[in-house]
């Protein structure tokens, strides 16, 4: 079966192409995509050719934030799933192109155990936020934030969700720094600081933080944040960093701990689904922009990667269907 998919054909090159799906095996499902979104972390690095590992060899299909309806199931899968919305973390179900995640396709074939059925969520599009929410939840678990003061660097999509989760999980104080005021306006932090127009030292004066979570990847921001950690404080690195370059003296003097958060743990997607279902996690807050797949995709990717006002770009695969469902 053929399907149209978003394909990175080279460094900073993108096309919508027809690709060949692998057949649906006995434990697989086929999903028709309604919405996917653009990752401004790993996906951006892959788009720019900065991840040289085998799955990211051009050409490849990106995408690990996909929601659609189950249209077909394998012989050993309960056919009651047909017609249900599900989140898909990606797929390797293609015959003629690499799949670096592989979720940005009109139809996706994947094992049933790799999907998360979105029963009970009022707006299934919110399923797009599951991986970011699970990433932020993993930060909380690694940081053991209950009863602690938490500083979150960056109020992009994952930073905004991290603030919500830190408060939900009992942090005694949550502060956030973000140089773009429009992003900071979305934040629910107890204390919000804009380093571009405020004195960070003055605004955070009197606070020593137990945990600092970085969602910026900006070494200067991390280095500044270290000043506000208490002795034996903990730093959570929230993503993939090509190279670390920070002043070691503060880490040495305070005996700080550094933890790399690679990926969410098993079960975290379901935990986040429940938080969205009961409105504890306000996922819709991060969906600031949308773009149809049949229009100029290069424009959508450029905006997602470069416009600080764009927290999360949602790609509409079935715009007319979205308006009627």
Q: Quote the distance from N terminus to C terminus.
A: 26 Å
* CATH topology descriptor of the largest domain: Quinone Oxidoreductase, Chain A, domain 1
Largest sheet: 7 strands, mixed
Shape: globular
Instruction: State mean pLDDT (0 to 100 scale).
Output: 94
| Radius of gyration over C-alpha positions, nearest whole angstrom | 20 Å
Order of helices and strands: EEEHEEEEEEHEHEHEHEHEHEHEHEH
The parts where pLDDT drops under 50 for at least 5 residues are 320-325
Question: In which range does the helix fraction lie?
Answer: 10-25%
The protein's oligomeric status is: single chain
Find the count of extended strands (DSSP E, 2+ residues): 17
Q: Under the CATH scheme, which architecture of the largest domain would be assigned? A: Alpha-Beta Complex
CATH class of the largest domain: Alpha Beta
CATH superfamily of the largest domain: Medium-chain alcohol dehydrogenases, catalytic domain
Tell me the strand percentage band.
25-35%
Tally of separate domains: 2
Output the number of helix runs: 10
Structural class: alpha/beta
